[in-house]
Write a structure and sequence with these properties.
165 residues; Arc Repressor Mutant, subunit A; 7 helices; mainly alpha
Length: 165
Amino acid sequence: MDRDQILAGLRERILAFATLRISRDRAEDLTQEVLAVLHEKYAHVKELTELVPLAFQVLKFKMLDAHRKSIRRGEYNQESVDDLPLADPGDNPMIQLDQKQRVDRLLAAMAQLGDRCRELFKWKLEGNSFPEIQKLMGQTSINTIYTWDLRCRKQLLSLMGGSWE
């Protein structure tokens, strides 16, 4: 029996073994990879008694490698996009109402704050840092700004009923 006949028979055994553990397409790919390794790196191995264990050892490593790659890429427990429900393009009316009510409460509470707190919040929303706000407010200590910020946030929270929700 020559090497080509041995490899043809071995191919069927490798494919059958791999198909039991993974999908048919992936098993065929791995079988081809195993045969390529045997052909390129182990051309000197001629005996069936040596080729069979060698082929299955290479297959085992290839299957472990494929498994590790699929986990690393997030493909292992991946769901099909076709099985996922379509997202509703519009917001839920209840969510819209809840958000509108929160914004209204926030605006009403902001209107009740003093000028210093409103200015502080305005500058924070504009993206100014605390040292920048310190300069804008003309304060010598940054700790004063931190204290005002804490007091203003507490006052706003109490004006909103003790909860941001």
